Automatic annotation (TrEMBL):
<dbReference type="InterPro" id="IPR029026">
    <property type="entry name" value="tRNA_m1G_MTases_N"/>
</dbReference>
<dbReference type="InterPro" id="IPR016009">
    <property type="entry name" value="tRNA_MeTrfase_TRMD/TRM10"/>
</dbReference>
<dbReference type="InterPro" id="IPR029028">
    <property type="entry name" value="Alpha/beta_knot_MTases"/>
</dbReference>
<keyword id="KW-0489">Methyltransferase</keyword>
<comment type="similarity">
    <text>Belongs to the RNA methyltransferase TrmD family.</text>
</comment>
<dbReference type="Pfam" id="PF01746">
    <property type="entry name" value="tRNA_m1G_MT"/>
</dbReference>
<comment type="function">
    <text>Specifically methylates guanosine-37 in various tRNAs.</text>
</comment>
<dbReference type="InterPro" id="IPR023148">
    <property type="entry name" value="tRNA_m1G_MeTrfase_C_sf"/>
</dbReference>
<feature type="binding site">
    <location>
        <position position="110"/>
    </location>
    <ligand>
        <name>S-adenosyl-L-methionine</name>
    </ligand>
</feature>
<feature type="region of interest" description="Disordered">
    <location>
        <begin position="235"/>
        <end position="270"/>
    </location>
</feature>
<keyword id="KW-0808">Transferase</keyword>
<dbReference type="InterPro" id="IPR002649">
    <property type="entry name" value="tRNA_m1G_MeTrfase_TrmD"/>
</dbReference>
<keyword id="KW-0949">S-adenosyl-L-methionine</keyword>
<keyword id="KW-0963">Cytoplasm</keyword>
<dbReference type="GO" id="GO:0002939">
    <property type="term" value="P:tRNA N1-guanine methylation"/>
</dbReference>
<protein>
    <recommendedName>
        <fullName>tRNA (guanine-N(1)-)-methyltransferase</fullName>
        <ecNumber>2.1.1.228</ecNumber>
    </recommendedName>
</protein>
<feature type="binding site">
    <location>
        <begin position="129"/>
        <end position="134"/>
    </location>
    <ligand>
        <name>S-adenosyl-L-methionine</name>
    </ligand>
</feature>
């Protein structure tokens, strides 16, 4: 079981998210445990006040470090104590895969102007889900919860499905289709209806490369490209300097043409 502990001023924001759909079913089956900790329970004053004005002046309020410390001390030891902050490490699929190997993750979800800077000494990792600012860390924590939980054995129905997801292979995912086969003049690609699994696999890889090249070429340096991938990228318009920057291997050697012998056989041309 993987335990997620969320220390927050608004546990009611996370409760429904963690209780529905696949996450809710995984909790019912004992695969995940979600612990919602209200920071006001550790305010240590009768007004349940957890924040104060910032030293030096300025707008907004700052959550006290002693409140965060007492809330964390109430938990069993966590493998990671994570602060959601715009200044944190970008949250990626690779980070999700790393965190999915842990047993207990604790998240500090800030509000207002965030936590007192001394709280950083209580955490093991700071994470950001993007270069933008929200009103609190709960939505970011929900993103991390879903991305990490789905990687745990038994949480999703097909244990192999996440291996072909966007970013897991270093590329964006290929496009998916289902019924109806025709819709407003748009057809499902014939290769997907032909039953040739090898052709489908090749088409999907080519589409993943095409999407990544067009939309997120910054991902290609981290992708495990094959010689055939290099050939496909060349056909898609990638340049030799780009391929070199992406550490792409050389394309496969060209196949030699076959010529017909006089006796009806064939031989490779030189």
């Amino acid at each position: 079981m993987l335990t997620f502990s969320f220390l927050t001023l608004f546990p009611e924001l996370l409760a429904p998210f963690a209780g529905e759909a696949i996450l809710g079913k995984a909790r019912e089956r004992g695969l995940l445990h979600v612990n919602l900790v209200h920071l006001r329970d550790f305010s240590d004053n009768r007004h349940l006040k957890v924040d104060d004005t910032p030293y030096g002046g300025g707008a907004g309020m700052v959550i006290r470090v002693d409140v965060a410390e007492r809330a964390l001390a109430s938990l069993p030891p966590a493998d990671e104590v994570i602060l959601l902050t715009p200044a944190g490490q970008p949250f990626t699929q690779a980070v999700a895969e790393e965190l999915a190997q842990k047993a207990h993750l604790a998240f500090l979800c800030g509000r207002y102007e965030g936590f007192d800077a001394r709280t950083e000494g209580l955490v093991t990792r700071e994470l950001s889900i993007g270069d933008f600012v929200m009103m609190g860390g709960e939505a970011a924590a929900a993103c991390v919860l879903e991305a990490v939980a789905r990687l745990r054995p038994g949480v999703i129905g097909d244990p192999e499905s996440h291996r072909t997801d966007s970013f897991s292979s270093g590329l964006l995912d290929y496009p998916e289709y289902t019924r109806p086969p025709e819709w407003r003049g748009q057809s499902v690609p014939e290769v997907l209806r032909g039953g040739n699994h090898g052709a489908v696999a090749r088409w999907r890889r080519e589409q993943a490369l095409a999407r990544t090249l067009a939309r997120r070429p910054d991902l290609l340096p981290g992708a495990a490209l094959t010689p055939q991938d290099t050939q496909t990228l060349l056909e898609l318009g990638a340049s030799a300097p780009q391929l070199q920057a992406w550490n792409a291997p050389p394309p496969p050697p060209p196949r030699r043409a076959r010529r017909v012998k006089k006796n009806g056989g064939s031989e490779q041309s030189g």
